[in-house]
Amino acid sequence: MPNFLKNNEVGVFALGGLGEVGKNMYVVEYQDEIIVIDSGILFPDDHLLGIDYVIPDYTYLFENQDKIKALIITHGHMDHIGGIEYLLRRVKIPVIYANGLAIGLIKSKLENHRGYRVDLKEYQEYEKLVLGKLKVSFFRTNHSIPDSFGIVVHSPEGRIIHTGDFKFDFTPTGPDADYQRIAELGKKGVLLLLSDSTNAELNEFTKSETLVSESIKDIFTQIEGRAIVATFASNVHRVQQMVEASIATGRKIVVYGRSMVNTVEVGKEMGYIKAPKTTFIDRNQVRKYPASKVTILCTGSQGEPFAALSRIAAGTHRQISIQHGDTVIFSSSAIPGNQESISHTINQLFKRGADVITNSPLSDTHTSGHAGREELKLMLKLTKPKYFMPIHGEYRMLKIHAQTAVKTGVKKGNEFVLDNGDMLAVTKNSARVAGKVQAGDVYVDGKGIGDIGNVVLRDRKYLSEDGLLSAIITINTKTNKLVTDPNIISRGFIYMKERSELTSEISDLVKEKVSEKLENIQSLDTSRLKRYITNLLRNYINQKTERNPMILPVIMTVN
Amino acid sequence: MPNFLKNNEVGVFALGGLGEVGKNMYVVEYQDEIIVIDSGILFPDDHLLGIDYVIPDYTYLFENQDKIKALIITHGHMDHIGGIEYLLRRVKIPVIYANGLAIGLIKSKLENHRGYRVDLKEYQEYEKLVLGKLKVSFFRTNHSIPDSFGIVVHSPEGRIIHTGDFKFDFTPTGPDADYQRIAELGKKGVLLLLSDSTNAELNEFTKSETLVSESIKDIFTQIEGRAIVATFASNVHRVQQMVEASIATGRKIVVYGRSMVNTVEVGKEMGYIKAPKTTFIDRNQVRKYPASKVTILCTGSQGEPFAALSRIAAGTHRQISIQHGDTVIFSSSAIPGNQESISHTINQLFKRGADVITNSPLSDTHTSGHAGREELKLMLKLTKPKYFMPIHGEYRMLKIHAQTAVKTGVKKGNEFVLDNGDMLAVTKNSARVAGKVQAGDVYVDGKGIGDIGNVVLRDRKYLSEDGLLSAIITINTKTNKLVTDPNIISRGFIYMKERSELTSEISDLVKEKVSEKLENIQSLDTSRLKRYITNLLRNYINQKTERNPMILPVIMTVN
């Protein structure tokens, strides 16, 4: 326990998820016990060149690993479970609790890492886990993946609710959210609410999956050719809607894209996807059916270069090519950063003669999995928390969510907009930001975890803009003279073959200036000479080309 | 004249602007005469690493430069005038016609290039230019920059209208669009309409600037502290709205950001910006006024890293720091690709304690400069063209615009969705795609025009993802032996200091394998040896790290 936490205080903090959408990881700490909620990754934006994922800094958990009672998972999205494999490499976790689909997804993630000893258990909806002084129970929510739950941590000071990712869908595709249990918690008393802020900026009630379902059925009825549908593979409920719309309009379904094939398999196995045996057909059977009786269900709703739909759009898919009458439906929204790729895919599809339908006020092909501001108010009204901490969102979302909480009844001053690592210390009667634990970003690139820092990223950025130019010189340390002409190499700078003049100018310049230098020095200081060459070439090249390639001087010595 | 164009046909084609929003350049060709409309640049998306601008391939104009009668400019946005400086380096243009603000902007662009001989003339709204067999007249439109015009090319076969960028604003900030002249053209007969497709996907009538003006006045009244407003500097009308809202609420205005300062100066000079002398104040006077009486007008609405607002948000602006009560208004929309930077700026502003207002259904702080689908229909109804060619848009926008044209009365088959270079050949009674002229993208990077090709871009992309690793070996060609240990250098690959073990492993590997090779060969084939080293290291590094840095083997020889 950090020394800034008093013995009767419950510490609540995030190691990921505040000021960002991703790498969710929340911690409840009381005396000698720690409960961790979720362990996600963040998909990096374009500025993190070449980075695969970002994970939280696990140092605090590593240093306090003997206190950890369990990791509890709210649901199976990657920003909530994707970090488990990295966490387990560093921190001893006695048991992971998850439910339903999340169990299956975690298992398939960990299969590749058999080295870990981990106890993965399924929690039951109405179960109460006793993990020491802290107890944990659950309530079902609606979200864009089945089996999503809110978590209640019962502490000696009071109930702490973590909503997980949620929305309230009054006509969901799967089971209802458990309004009664949530309201009952509010009646009994909630000390602290941590609630999903993703859509706090949207002044609305997120539309129901049923509206999407009906809209898709409508669209399926109207289109004459094949229906080609791309959606998020993790949204099993949405896939079931496509299945139902296909059945209703007499269409057979063929599935493309690895993760979509996987979703359909798992979904059927676990009972989320229900269809007569003859609904799904093999790829080689497609030709037996007229276009108007075919649905192609595929990945690629974000314009990912190697996904099925992107290859169909580019004309490089081995089995599917766009034919007259095809309609492509994007049952998805654009994740920030993907707009350009999606737009490119849509243009290609139009060009190949397909019609394309995206989510719009005229055709509801998608709805969010997160609560709009009106649902956030409902959660606040149902739980009536004494203290409030918005989670799962960029700073402006958290801020607006906190303002919303105050407007809905949380006492001004009882709302806490925090950063990752900030520890909120609560008791029955008090709440304060007690201090800060170590938190931050760790980059995963290939097999390397945390070996990429800002220097490497800055170099990648630099290289991406004007490439590099290397000048290699060999010096005879006996004579203090150049052994050969400088060797000038560039990549990503300019098409050097076309500019051989520039290359020889640079080589001559280096030869002349370095030879001069060498004549006037007694002993060779290579670092100093490298700096000299770097400055020399940076100025010369910038003046000649207005570009700034990375300059990489290399000095070889022979004697 | 290309041999595929018949003597009585008028050729109409784009060298830029079809399948893209940017580098607009349209050509009308009749017998031995060519008229060019606009000469723009395209701002590259993230895939074109380090590229400053994209311009059209001017080859066709270069080869036919003796036929060029004039370049006519519709308005002063960069995607319509930004290419002029590059065009003039390659192609002889006898005269450029432009109007009002565009004249000033072109002049300031060309000032840096005094070498060109160019005749820049101002056309008058009601003038008819006789340029040979082709004549040109104009009609005023509404757009997000003052002095925007549509162009009418009067050919012996009929009238060809190019709308320029336009919308219909019934309550504009500047003068009305010239409905009467447009309708009169429709009455007299329009052979071919080329019309702006930017917002063809939006099933609406673009809201009026007056609505924005009123909304901004409302916001200014409600905010208690300073109003910090960011907008596009080229939108002089919008800047005038900020001035009026400031005057109405008793605020003094201080201006930050080079292009905004420039807009205010030019705008005042040309009469677009009207304010009492005391409205604009110097930066050192700001402290004399209470926060509620201050408007800060600045650049940075797109989250550009060095713009005034971005520096204010980052806390690095020398004069302005966010104080309690500040409200930042984004009077702008996000240009695709900029969402992440804007979002980052907004988060920072919230974090520093500012309130932030962006364009939304609740606060109309911005409206587009382009016609929504309803206005496109109005243009079609007013002009009643026989043939139709949608321009200025990505493929899906052109396609939807063409469908809209057919729905509004253009005969099915008379609409032409084309690519850059496709030549539409029209006569009184016919229209056909006659052939294709050379068209494409030319990249501008610093001083280099067209010297960056796909090889260089691919290298930049490659370098941006995993950096590079260079192995430098020096071989004595007499003994066929390595002179020193291989020198291993990397940038952007991995933080080598932390992984010195890997470096020495790689060095040892190269030493061992290359020495082996050298023993078994008679004469040194350096290309072959380089390929060998590249493959060796690529496999070794990928297996060790799962990364793929660019491998750059360098072989120095001494004897």
Characterization of the model:
- Two copies of one chain form a homodimer.
- Chain A is α/β, with parallel strands linked by helices.
- Chain A has three domains: about 10-205 and about 370-450, Ribonuclease Z/Hydroxyacylglutathione hydrolase-like (Metallo-beta-lactamase, Chain A); about 210-355, Rossmann fold; about 455-559, Ubiquitin-like (UB roll) (Roll).
- The first copy, chain A, contains 15 helices and 26 strands.
- In chain A, the strands form five sheets. In chain A, strands 7-6-5-3-2-1-19-20 form an eight-stranded mixed sheet, with helices on one face. Chain A has a six-stranded mixed sheet with strand order 8-9-10-11-12-18. A five-stranded parallel sheet of chain A has the order 14-15-13-16-17, sandwiched between helices.
- In chain A, a hairpin with a 4-residue loop joins strand 8 (about 130) and strand 9.
- The termini of chain A are far apart.
- Chains A and B meet through helix 10, helix 12, helix 13, strand 23 and strand 25 of A and helix 10, helix 12, helix 13, strand 23 and strand 25 of B.
